[in-house]
Amino acid sequence: MIKQYWQFIWGLQYNAERFFNEQINYYDISHPWTNQSCDVFLVRDFQTNSLLYDSIDNLVLHFAEQQFKHCSLYPLSIIFPNRPLTKHHSFEFVNNDAPVAVFKNNWNKAFALIQIEQEKPSKEICPIGDPREFWSPTSSQSQTPTFGLFTLIELNQSQKNECHLFDQNLTWNSLIENIHIDLMQSDFASSLGINFQYTNNLYFNGYDHQNIPLLPSHTLPNNLGFSLIQMLNPIEDRIKSFTNIRNENSDYRFYSTEQHALFEKFKTQKNQLHTQLICFTANHMESAMHFSKLQKQQLEQWEKASIHVEEIQNHIQVAQDAEQRKTEQPITAARAFIITSIFIIVLFTIFYGLYWLVSKFEFIKFVAITAGAISFLYILSKK
Question: Where are its TM segments located (predicted)?
C-alpha cells in the first residue's frame, strides 16, 4: 500500500488532466510525485480480478483513446458514503477517507480509481506454534510502502451527482470558514502549533524548495489552496507527538474522558478538511491563485497569530535552555577539589571507625576476621 498516497494520487491526477488538455506529451504522463511514492502500479478488474493496467501511462493513454477529457479528485466518503466496498470477495479496501481520482468523458461516463489495501489470499495458512503468541503469516503487500494496487469502478448517476455537488457547493470562503471554526478556534490549536504561511507550490514530503515540486514552474503567484494545505500537513505528525505516552511535556495524559472525545472529534474534522481541501484545490487550481479582500484579511490574521505563537514558543524554548544551563553547571577546579576532599574525608572516617571498633572490641575483631576468611574462601572457590 502506498504510504504517501495523497501526494501520489494528486501527481497522477495533475498530469492526467494536463495530458487530456494536450499540455504535455505521453512520455511526461508519469509525475515525479508518483515516481517517488510508487514503484509498482497495478490496476485489477473489480469483478474478475484480472490485470488491466500495469503502469500509469497505460491507464491514462487508454482513457485518452476512449475520449475521456477530465480527471478530478473527490473524497472517498462522498462517492461511497456507506462503504459497500468492504464486502468484496477478493479485495480489502482502505477504510479511511482519502482523495479518489475520477476519470470523466463528455458522454456522462465516470470511473473512480480506488486504492486496494491488499488482495485476499485464496489459501489460509494456519498459525504454527503456541496460539498464545498471536502469531500469523505476514503480508508483503501491507509491508511495502511503494506498492500501489487499484481497481476501477464505474460511478452511477447518484455518485456523479454527489461529485457535481461537491464542486458546486464548496467554495474557498466556506473552506476558510470551516478551518477557522473547527481548527483555528479549537482549544487544541495552540497545543499543536497550527501556523499559516503563504506559498505558491507544494513539495514532496516536506517544505524544502530543493525537494520535488507539484507544479513545474516556480514563478507562480501565491496559491490559496497550497497555503492552506501546507498549514494542515504537519498537524498529523504533531498529533502523534502530542499523544505519545513518552512525551512528558504534553497535557494529553491528563485529559478527561470528555476531553479525549473532543480531541477525537478534532482529528476527524482535521482529516475531513484536509481531504476536501486537496480535492477542491486540485479541481480549481486557477481560482486558487486569486484572493478576495475578505480572504486576505482572514489569512493576514492567521499569519500574525502564527508569528505571535512562534515568538512565544521561541521565548519558552530560550527560557528552558537557560534553566537547563543553570542546572547543568560546569565542574570547575575549585568544585572538583571540594568534591574530592569530601570524598576523602568520608572514606577516612569509615576506615578509622572500623579500626577503632576492632581495637576496642574483641567481638568486632572476631567478626571482621571471620568475614574476611569467608570472603577469601569464596573467591578461591570461584577460581
Answer: 336-357, 363-380
- How confident is the model at residue 315, as a pLDDT? 44
Given 3-state DSSP classes, what are the helix, strand and coil percentages for the chain, each rounded to the nearest 5?
55, 10, 30
Query: Mean pLDDT across the stretch 45-67?
Result: 93
Q: C-alpha angle 66/70/76, rounded to 5°?
A: 110
Sequence letter at residue 317: Q
CB neighbours of residue 355 within 10 Å: 10
Looking at 1.10.132, 3.10.350, 3.40.720, 3.10.450, the CATH number of the domain 5-121+141-168 comes to: 3.10.450
Helix axes 257-283, 224-232, angle to 10 degrees: 150
The grid coordinates listed for 242 are 502530542
Question: Mean per-residue pLDDT for 347-369?
Answer: 76
Report DSSP state, residue 203. B
Q: Which residue has the cell 491488499?
A: 118
Which of these, 137, 114, 3, 123, lies nearest to 59 by C-alpha position?
114
Chain mean position to CA 196? 18
Q: How far apart are CA 87 and CA 266, in angstroms?
A: 29
Say whether pLDDT at 175 is over 80: yes
**What's the angle, vertex CA 225, arms to CA 72 and CA 183, rounded to 5?**
115
Is the pLDDT assigned to residue 102 strictly greater than 90?
Answer: yes
Averaged pLDDT of the chain: 83
Mean pLDDT to the nearest integer, 313-333: 53
Rounded mean pLDDT, 118-142 = 69
Q: E strands along 10-165, which residues?
A: 40-44, 51-53, 68-75, 91-93, 99-105, 110-119, 147-154
Between 9 and 217, where is the model more confident?
9
Domain chopping of the chain, boundaries: 5-121+141-168, 172-326, 333-372
Amino acid at 257: T
Q: Identify the pLDDT of residue 312.
A: 42
